[in-house]
Amino acid sequence: MALSGNAALAMFFDIESGFETEHDHWHTHEHFGERLGIPGFRRAVRWNALDGGPRYFMMYEVAEVATLTSAPYLERLDNPSPWTRTVMPY
After folding, report:
1. How far apart are the first and last CA of the chain?
2. Phi–psi pair at 3, nearest 5 degrees
3. pLDDT per residue as tens digits for the range 9-27
4. Distance of CA 13 to the CA centre of its chain
5. Can you give the pLDDT at residue 49?
6. Cα dist. 61→6, 50, 77 in Å?
7. Which residues share a beta bridge with 46?
8. Burial call 30-64: b when 16+ CB within 10 Å, e when fewer
9. Which one of 26, 39, 44, 60 is at 20 to 30 Å from 3 when CA atoms are compared?
10. What percentage of the chain's residues is helix, strand, coil (to nearest 5)?
11. What span, in angstroms and rounded, lies between the C-alpha atoms of 82 and 68?
């Protein structure tokens, strides 16, 4: 499958044991939509490892690299929702 844009943000990560269900619910029901509402974000996917780790692979496809330093994206990063602060406190 070709990228839906000219750049991507890819991450591999784990979540502290016991918090996976809350993380997955937040990620699916808030975070995906929030990110895809930012101009230049085209598509988002998350895969979970069946065995081993890291548990997650996440990729956001964006129109161009500059999307990741744009004012709308930085505004979201600097002003997380209350649920985001609960699930991702760092």
Report:
1. 33
2. -65, 145
3. 999 999 888 888 999 999 9
4. 11
5. 93
6. 8, 23, 17
7. 58
8. ebbeebeebebbbebeeeeeeeeeebbebbbbbee
9. 26
10. 40, 25, 35
11. 22
| 68 phi/psi in degrees, rounded to 5 | -80, 0
Helix, strand, or coil (residue 58) = strand
For residues 22 and 2, what is the distance between their CA atoms, to the nearest angstrom?
31
Distance CA 29, CA 63 (A): 23
**pLDDT given at position 88:** 74
Band (67; pLDDT cuts 50, 70, 90): very high
Q: Do the Cβ atoms of 62 and 9 come closer than 8 Å?
A: yes
Please tell me the number of Cα atoms within 13 Å of 44 on its side-chain side.
16
